[in-house]
Design a protein that fits this description.
There is one protein chain. The chain is α/β, with parallel strands linked by helices. The chain is built from 11 helices and 12 strands. It has a 6-stranded parallel sheet with strand order 2-1-3-4-5-11, sandwiched between helices. A 4-stranded parallel sheet has the order 7-6-8-9, sandwiched between helices. Strands 10-12 form a two-stranded antiparallel sheet. It is elongated and about 65 Å long.
Length: 334
């Protein structure tokens, strides 16, 4: 029996209250059976509870932990069994997770891909098995395999960061760019958005560009190496906040933390706090919660019969700087 909506439930409750003297406990029992029938786990045609797999690129990054846990919690709140799988930035391991999900009878997959091209074959396998896949934050380079892709507007977000970067350096200076995973479209969309602004200013010179795979420790090592060849830099633009924190650590170790501005992207808690403490200049705040909840909602809609999903759903990114950080987090205690 279908779950009652709130208005119908309240109407039935009123009816029960009016008729209780005449109908007795039987009607009350019927009311509560109807009202709470939707609280039981949603089941598939075999009578088993429907299951949602949450497959993420890595759990070695707090931002992706939030993405994964929010997606799983939202799906569970909607009545589905959930399980989180960590691909450890390895497409082969991601393929194993897909095989596991298919064989184990999962009914939908909420995916944060490891690679924009390499993940396509995994999504295709799920599609061929009749399992919808909803991508979160990262995309796959195909408009037909995923049921829908819920993505941050990385390009526009980094246009805003580029504009702030130019203002912060007064349109001149040497800088370093630390890229994320080279196989991830987010890496290049962020870089392109940033350069669409910065490259218009001849006084700004990029002295080094290197990948650190979105990893904090790698970013620290990369910048330490770059500083040996280019000690006189004015700023570092990092493709995510984990790398921004790693870059900041390298600058602290070299005694240059107060001289070199660091810019990130994500809106991770540690970077938001670092912006408040005037250690990091700015970041692009994207919402893993919004993307995760939307993906879980879409899976729920799919189970209920919906099929006409938008192929790409952009989620806005907000620029957070030292000037407006108070609008996002509370001041540090003295």
């Amino acid at each position: 029996m279908k779950q009652l909506n709130k208005r119908t439930a309240m109407t039935l409750l009123s009816f029960c209250q009016k008729r209780i003297a005449f109908r007795g406990p039987a009607l009350v029992s019927l009311f509560f059976t109807l009202l709470f029938s939707g609280c039981q786990p949603k089941k598939d045609s075999s009578g088993e509870p429907k299951k949602v797999a949450v497959i993420v690129s890595t759990l070695n990054n707090p931002w992706f932990v939030v993405l994964a846990e929010t997606a799983a919690a939202e799906a569970k709140a909607r009545g589905y069994e959930t399980k989180i799988f960590d691909s450890q930035n390895n497409t082969s391991l991601e393929a194993d997770h897909f095989e596991n999900a298919i064989v184990s009878g999962f009914n939908a997959i909420l995916l944060n891909p490891t690679d924009s091209d390499g993940s396509i074959v995994n999504v295709m396998k799920a599609k061929e098995a009749g399992i919808p896949v909803f991508c979160m934050d990262r995309e796959v380079n195909s408009s037909t395999v995923a049921t829908s892709q819920i993505l941050s507007d990385n390009y526009s977000g980094c246009v805003a960061i580029g504009e702030n970067f130019v203002q912060g350096l007064n349109k001149k200076g040497n800088y370093v760019e630390i890229l994320g995973l080279v196989g991830d479209n987010n890496t290049w969309n962020r870089s392109k958005g940033f350069h669409s602004v910065v490259d218009r200013y001849p006084g700004l010179k990029m002295v080094a560009q290197q990948s650190a795979d979105f990893d904090r420790n790698k970013a620290m090592e990369v910048l330490e190496s770059i500083l040996q060849a280019h000690p006189d830099i004015n700023a570092v633009f990092c493709g995510n906040d984990a790398m921004a924190m790693g870059a900041y650590q390298a600058l602290v170790a070299s005694g240059k933390a107060k001289e070199v501005g660091v810019y990130g992207f994500d809106g991770a808690d540690d970077v938001m706090n670092a912006i408040r403490d005037r250690k990091i200049k700015a970041t692009g705040l994207q919402s893993p919660q919004t993307m995760a909840k939307t993906a879980a909602q879409y899976a729920d809609d799919y189970f209920k019969g919906k099929r006409d999903f938008a192929r790409r759903v952009p989620v806005a990114v907000e620029l957070v700087t030292q000037k407006n950080i108070a609008d996002y987090i509370t001041p540090a205690r003295p």
